[in-house]
Specification:
83% of the residues lie in helices and 0% in strands.
């Protein structure tokens, strides 16, 4: 075996350069990548409308307008429940204080290993934290809302432009390939678009199914704000591995504070555990996982790397981006090992259909000898 140190150096330098660009250009790249994935989802709808005789600009406006109306409706429903919860903020603090006091008393009476905890000191600190941070919570909410709105505006503009110049961008990118290989290059771009489209459409369907299951389970339990907690947990499921746990933790804490009986938080834990079991073993592999074909090692690595570079946005984006990278690498001979490293192991059963009919016929005739 021969090792080319120059190629190894160029590969390491390229990786470092790409990571540096992604880190320093985060504010510019995140809305662009979100817009690209949204454009992948909306492109078939725009294409269908243009085939029906609508102009492309009008088709894009109608498609994005429909998405905006749907998103606004969901946001209004969430806002109504958030306002109701905010109106009971003082009651929530009082119940939290009572619950904490009971917990401290229980620990002091039943657990003799640790020294007694001064409940009054903890309660005073808790009260000061909430009272001092009340203004900060409002100011941070305004700041986050402003940043989110600016992000939505930027992503919407990029999405419109990507959809409008889709043919032009495809033609321009195709010029990077050799003339004899352009057909294969276009097929690669179509596969990349298909992976992004299938991932996000699958995630939207998964969010809808999980939101309904969570809401129904919490309604059966008798929880307040079941719609809010149910769909919040479903939205957090976008973040792999971490989101489902966090989504179940929030209503559990609320049930622990809002209800006197411990059966309610236990019931919330059991409901979300059962739904998470169904999601992890049946829903996610069928709806989303089958379109990714990324092994578990690189799924977790992409989650950690995305969180390190781009925060929550990276945890959402890096998994489909890695799947697209796998598609690109599989179309280049030099990068095929990278695609094999990222992808799942191909068994002999999966390789069998790749044989031609003549090869299968020859093997069949040999078996009769």
């Amino acid at each position: 075996m021969n090792l080319s140190f120059s190629k190894f150096f160029y590969a390491i330098a390229s990786i470092i350069g790409i990571v540096a660009i992604m880190h320093f250009a985060k504010s510019m790249l995140v809305p662009v990548f979100f817009a690209m994935l949204f454009a992948f989802i909306l492109y078939p709808i725009v294409k269908w409308l243009t085939k029906k005789g609508l102009k492309k600009v009008l088709g894009i406006i109608l498609t994005m307008g429909g998405v905006f109306i749907l998103f606004s409706g969901v946001l209004v429903l969430f806002s109504a429940q958030i306002i109701n919860m905010a109106s009971q903020y003082s009651n929530f603090l009082e119940k939290l204080r009572e619950t904490l006091e009971k917990s401290v008393t229980f620990l002091n009476d039943k657990v003799q290993i640790i020294p007694d905890i001064e409940s009054q000191t903890i309660l005073d600190r808790l009260t000061n934290v909430f009272s001092d941070s009340s203004f900060l919570i409002i100011s941070d909410t305004v700041s986050v809302t402003g940043s989110f709105l600016s992000f939505v505006v930027l992503a919407s503009i990029y999405t419109f432009l990507i959809l409008f110049y889709s043919e032009h961008l495809t033609e321009a990118l195709t010029r990077f390939a050799d003339k004899k290989k352009r057909k294969s290059f276009i097929n690669m771009l179509r596969e990349v678009q298909k992976v992004g489209q299938q991932y996000f459409t699958g995630m939207l369907l998964l969010i809808l199914v999980l939101g309904v299951l969570n809401t129904v389970g919490l309604l059966i339990l008798g929880m307040d704000y079941a719609f809010f907690f149910g769909f919040l947990a479903a939205l957090l499921a976008i973040i792999p591995y971490v989101g489902t746990t966090l989504g179940g933790l929030i209503p559990t804490i609320y049930a622990f504070v809002a209800f006197d009986s411990y059966w309610y938080p236990l019931g919330v834990i059991l409901i979300f555990w059962f739904i998470q079991f169904i999601e992890g073993n049946f829903l996610n592999p069928k709806i989303v996982g089958g379109n990714m074909q990324i092994n578990a090692l690189f799924s977790i690595f992409s989650l950690i790397a995305g969180g390190f570079l781009w925060g929550i946005a990276g945890m959402i984006l890096f998994l489909p981006l890695v799947a697209m990278l796998k598609v690109v690498c599989s179309h280049y001979e030099e990068l095929e090992p990278v695609a094999s490293l990222i992808g799942e192991r191909i068994t002999e059963v999966q390789r069998a259909p790749e044989k031609s009919a003549i090869e299968m016929l020859v093997e069949k005739l040999k078996s009769f000898d």
